[in-house]
Amino acid sequence: MKEEFPRAKNPLILRYHRMLEAFSKSDDERDFYLDKVEGFILYMDFDKNEEDLVAAENVFKAYPDRYCLVPKLSYYETKKFMEGFVNEKVYDIDTKEKLLDVISGKEARENFLEYIYDHLNELDKWQLYYHERSRVRIIEWLRSCNVVFVFEEDLELPKNVVEKLKEHIFDAKVSKDVAQAREMLEVKAKTYYSSEALNPRPKRGRPPKQQAKVEVEPELTNDLYTTVPPALRQFLFAPEFGTSGASFSSKFDSEEQFLANMRGGSKDKVDTKLEILSQRLESLRHLSAKVKDVAPSVDKKIINALAAKTIEDESQHGEPKLSQIAQDLFPKKKFRTTPQDVKELMEEKKRRGVKKVTRIQYKKSDKKE
After folding, report:
1. Are 245 and 116 spatial neighbours (Cβ–Cβ below 8 Å)?
2. Do the strands 41-44 and 67-69 form a parallel or antiparallel pair, or are they unpaired?
3. Which of 58, 133, 230, 236 has the least CB density, counted as fewest CB within 10 Å?
4. For the residues of 100-151, what is the DSSP string, one character each?
5. 33 and 124 share a domain?
6. 9: exposed, middle or buried (C-beta count within 10 Å: 0-12, 13-18, 19+)?
7. Domain span at residue 192?
8. Which segments of the chain are extended strands (E)?
9. Residue 231 falls within a domain, yes or no?
10. Are residues 232 and 305 in the same domain?
11. Are 38 and 173 within one domain?
């Protein structure tokens, strides 16, 4: 590290959830860097202007010991995360088999999260497991970089004291309350370098009664950085506080985006089926409306025709002939009235012959009865 950079007088105050986001999103297309002087995080967004990216790259080359590249989350580590959760925390056999199938398929990371978010009984377990495992991984990496640090979320200091620590991070002479807070930070920083930090033990004794989970957002201080190079200021990574496990997603930056995508995808699938049904119902309504429109018009035509004919007959003969009109509407029977017709009918019957019917055979038991 170059001499012109000041040295912090107390452990760096890092945001655990920002480190978690950087570790989750770091891949072949995104680079994250941690500053070892003040503890800020840089996100190299390759959509930025090429000149800005070149200027930032020159800063990294000029001071290689100041910035640590956040390691990429490989496919093997991602799969290990998911398989570890399924084997250690999922107890239902059907759910376990389904999740193992999802992990072995395409887009396992996103499909795994979608399945977890659809099963709320597994969601809380996944979030807790994900944060615990990620915490160990982040602490291990910070130790390998020789960074003396504390997580701001773990501090039990008042907000105004933490702000003073950030403000006077490079000052040798400070007030009494800041000096006492520095001592507390030194003690806290040693816990991250203990063996228990990488191998957390479960608490002994009877587990506490399960109560409704209440998520309280910690009171975090504002960011205060004084040594950020001008070429890197636009690359500062400062997402808002979040506790969800959706940060495991590689496509979406927040839980809101992830859930919106889930609702949108399921909505599209449902809407496709509903649209087909609605089209069929609409066609049925259209046909029924046509029938309703046609039927009354036919009835009216018949009634009008009958009425017109009746009036005409009445005007000519003086008496209504409705029976004659009805006979005209229905098909007429064929009657054989002449002797010749009767003779032809008898000859047809003779030609057909007598119809033979099979004789009914009774059993002996039936005859006795």
Report:
1. yes
2. unpaired
3. 230
4. HHHHHSTTHHHHHHHHHHH-HHHHHHHHHHHHHHHHHHHHHHHHHTT--EEE
5. yes
6. middle
7. 12-200+221-253
8. 12-14, 31-35, 41-44, 67-69, 149-151
9. yes
10. no
11. yes
Across the beta sheet with 67-69, the strand order is 41-44, 31-35, 67-69
Mean per-residue pLDDT for 237-259?
A: 60
**What's the rounded Cα separation, in Å, for the pair 13 and 38?**
8
Instruction: Give residue 138's pLDDT band: very low, low, confident or very high (50, 70, 90).
Output: very high
What was the pLDDT predicted at 202? 63
pLDDT at 182 over 90: yes
pLDDT for the residue numbered 1: 44
Q: How many CB atoms lie within 10 A of CB 192?
A: 22
- Note whether 170 and 279 are same-domain residues: no
CB 32 within 8 A of CB 69: yes
Where does the pLDDT of residue 208 fall: very low under 50, low under 70, confident under 90, or very high at 90 and above?
A: low
Q: Residues, the chain, total?
A: 369
> What b/e string do you get for 296-306 counting C-beta neighbours within 10 Å, with b at 16 or more?
eeeeeeeeeee
Give the chain's domain count.
2
The C-alpha atoms of residue 168 and residue 162 are separated, in whole angstroms, by 10
Whether residues 244 and 275 fall in one domain: no
| 236 phi/psi in degrees, rounded to 5 | -60, 135
CA distances from residue 336 to 331, 343, 351 in whole angstroms, order as listed: 16, 10, 19
Give a yes or no: residue 261 inside a domain. no
CA distance 130 to 124: 10
- pLDDT tens for 8-23 read 999 999 999 899 888 8
Is residue 41 within 8 Å of residue 34, measured between CB atoms?
Answer: yes
d(CA 248, CA 240): 16
Domain membership of residue 70 (yes or no) is yes
Same-domain check for residues 73 and 179: yes
Helix (H, G, I), strand (E, B) or coil at 43: strand
In a domain, 302, yes or no: yes
d(CA 12, CA 267): 46
Here the tokens at position 286 are 């259209």
DSSP 236: B
- Considering only CA atoms, which of 290, 289, 285, 322 is closest in space to residue 305? 322
